[in-house]
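Narrative of activities, Objective 1.

The group set out to show that a structural description can be obtained from nothing but a protein's sequence at a throughput compatible with the screening campaign. Below is one input-output pair from the validation batch, recorded exactly as produced.
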Amino acid sequence: MATKLLPDDLLLEILVRLPVSSLLRFRCVLRSWCTFITGPTFISAHIHHNSIANRYRVLVRIFDPEADKKVQYKLCQDNESMDEIMVIDSPCVSQLNDFFRMVGCVNGLVCLSDDIVEETDALILWNPIIRRFLTLPQPNADIVSADMGRYVYGFGFDSLVNDYKVIRILYHGNQNSEASELEALTAIFRLSRGSWEINSSTSLPLLDSRQAYVHGVIHWLAYKSFILGCDASSEKFKKIMLPTSLQNVNVRNLTIAPWCGLLSIFESGIWSGRLCLWTMKDYGMEESWVKQFVIEYPAIVRSLRRNGNVILENIEGGLRSYNHKTNQIEDSKIPVEGSIRGFHMKSYLESLVLLDRVDAQVLL
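Output recorded for this entry:
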């Protein structure tokens, strides 16, 4: 019994419908309520309910170089005007870069990496709504040698065991994008264990650092004619061929992303004046690649909305929004503060992940 009045199953049905802000306060009602709310069963049930109820928000990064390079995040409603819910200070200060890169965001947990320009090894898992973050430990120093170079990270959720995982790929020596494969060392951080597991060296293609997490698989663009995926549950790698017309396109002109729940590739139109979106209609079926739409506008993709709208940056450095239902370019209603270079946004689902971690730090 969670209380003398309510059985656990009824308490679950009531509390799971509440927002995170209320749940944080209700921990103080009774000690048994605190134990119940911070338990892994309730945290998972709350995420599931929020997802089914479509309670998604938008997390926006703000970087102001004029204010001592201050980095902040805004949590906004996922509506037309993106009404502000709260402003959250960054949990970390970059050593060499202006801000941390948002590797991925799953179930309210954000993976941040200090590798915008130069790798500093700093990796953080952060839940902004509860203001808790976990700085990941360094992998065993014995595996790092002078001939190791570039890192690539991925972040995903293993639904089979309810665990969050960070994938780290460390390439040996000089990276040659023309090589079919390179020697690399992979490591996996499992949140449930709080430690890294180092795998033996393997041959992998050189990968772009941007990821798309779709269908439980972390995807990266390889500097060849395909996508490399890593299943978050099995931790196995697999190749997916790009659409035929994109197989000879420079990776720098492509953006991989989840669009409306589909694995998708954008072909940049900043120079050609055309931006194309390809989606994989049936996941894993390479013949199901379809050209979804073409935007006749010189721009690059900056972010995506859950409603399918595409946030674009034009050649003047301004933000516009493409409405895929009307095929129209519209003025963006997203409030941009500070430098456009630091602007980034991701769909965000409120959760209590990290609330049960005694090793997580609290951002006051």
